[in-house]
## 1
Amino acid sequence: MKKFFFLLFFTSLFVFNNLMMASAVIGEQGELIGDNIDVKISAENFSGQVTSDEFHIWGNVRLEKEDATLQADDVKFNSKTNIAVATGNVYFTQIGTALSGNSVTVEYKKKKGIWKGNVKLVQSKAPEKGDEKVEKTFKGGPVTIIADSLEFTWMEPNKVIAKGKVAAHQKDKHIYGDMATYISYPQNITLQGSVRLTRDDGSSMECAKLVMDLDTHKFQAMRSSRSQIKVNFYYDKKKKNI
């Protein structure tokens, strides 16, 4: 049945000319006729063989599954594993989260993506613990994470592992390091490797590892065996705070 579905789809596609906008739902046949539709794909061009699970899709590509949407110029998609490799103007959205980068490999069955090159994540809300359908807006404001590479898992809770020239921003707080692990609920971030925390008021701190609760703003700074924690506070007499 699955091969028949692909044969029917691609036969129709070539009849209408592969330069025109086309769309399909690709996945296991059992899932297609059940309650869980795998991945809905629309693009200007499709190519592949009915005897293969590999497809090349290009030109304004859009992949949708549940509340996750991936857009790119070019995608290689495996219908058996539900893995997509996207390049060119890569943009991913999931409720409360937006991600961009040079390329990404998305494993839909694991709800996980690995982005590489000029990666930027912006998250304003995420599922509350125990209920993926209830979104909680962060009272501390959106979190922005920039890195050379980033792994994002959008299961509850959302998890981010960022590596290479990591920068994390939230309102007046700016944290830099070599690696960061971010959890959406409870909302906290851990940075390691030449960590530097700065605030817009001029305060700063340097340490080997920093753990911060972005909801309560409490943090713990740790030093390495070869370094000390350096702190520079700015005191505003008018506001009487640090």
Note: Confidence is low (pLDDT under 50) at residues 1-20, 27-37.
## 2
Amino acid sequence: MATAAGNVSMIRHNYHQDSELEDFLKSNVLKEQVELINKLGQYITVLQRVGRGLGEQEFDRQLLQQKCLAGLSGALSGSIPKY
């Protein structure tokens, strides 16, 4: 059986030698992760601005409303509540 470390080194080796795999990972996988990280950063910024209490409750209410409208699979694709 191959170890996890062996698998990682094999993937790294293949990644650098396979330009199509490299392009796919950069354009699809990494792009989605960057977008998600940016979205989460925006949420954190908004939550820091609204503070605790009623502002946080309103943010949660709007976020929950977006989840209900967009469905659970696309919950993070909605717009961020602005304050």
Note: Residues 4-77 form one domain.
